């Protein structure tokens, strides 16, 4: 079956260049499908899967951005080598920062040989990015995730690295809380949020997580937060093993409920242990995560996420949100952090979201 190059090019003046490309590629059984507008380009992509996509990109037109968004929203398309063609590279660079990681850029004017070389580079770059992402454990479940129209605004914001607005959009897509109700009856608010999470479609939650993970190169995302929780939990379990708290049980074979009971039981019995028997490792663990004399894994997570300062005497969030990649890993999305009001409440809300994703 011959390979197909889809060309979405607004100017018919480029026909000569692409004829040169056809002549260069004839021996490789390459077919070129040409369309002159974004609508026809998306229509073609809905029906077929080309081997390479060439997109004429003019920010002022707007529709070319819709094509780019559509390609990134479809699991079957996002790993196709994409070449953006434009005579306005500086304008694109200024207006869309961080975009160039998703395609190879070919600056106009160019000839057929230069375009052929650009195609070869784009294929190599796409292969490298795919291999890098597929090796990362948190990308493993997302290679077949399609993005719905409801997620396109979030995708747009994340592609542009507008982390603050993307965080607000994520809260809008998941749940919002009536702050007046929270002040009157926090338990009712938590119950309503849990119900909202239960009713939330798993595929939508996966799509939101995917967008955060892939557009931050694994720095942000719900699954990133979940992995951090696993790291904290594993550290605590290793301490349990060191002091012989499991009484012969293998924690790796325990259910989540059994593990939680171990944590609760251990915290209840901690005063009966001497400092020497607990060991330096647990003392260090407590110094990092003990809030008001209480240790819970969800609130320990909020400390590692940079939402709650270590050694804080209160449950109230006191860590500033840092809307940049200089923030702690997993810092975003906050998923309603401000609405829930306290680290204690929010940490447990996150566990319900994790249960939705992984149980």
Automatic annotation (TrEMBL):
Annotated Response regulatory domain residues: 4-123
Cited PROSITE patterns: RESPONSE_REGULATORY
A GO biological process held by the record: phosphorelay signal transduction system
InterPro entries, per the entry: CheY-like_superfamily, GUN4-like, GUN4-like_sf, Sig_transdc_resp-reg_receiver
Any GO molecular function: tetrapyrrole binding
Positions of modified residues (4-aspartylphosphate): 56
Protein keywords: Phosphoprotein
Gene3D superfamilies found in the cross-reference section: 1.25.40.620, 3.40.50.2300, Gun4-like
GO cellular component terms given for this protein: outer membrane-bounded periplasmic space
Keyword Transport in annotation: no
Protein name: GUN4 domain-containing protein
Naturally occurring in which organism (per UniProt): Aerosakkonema funiforme FACHB-1375
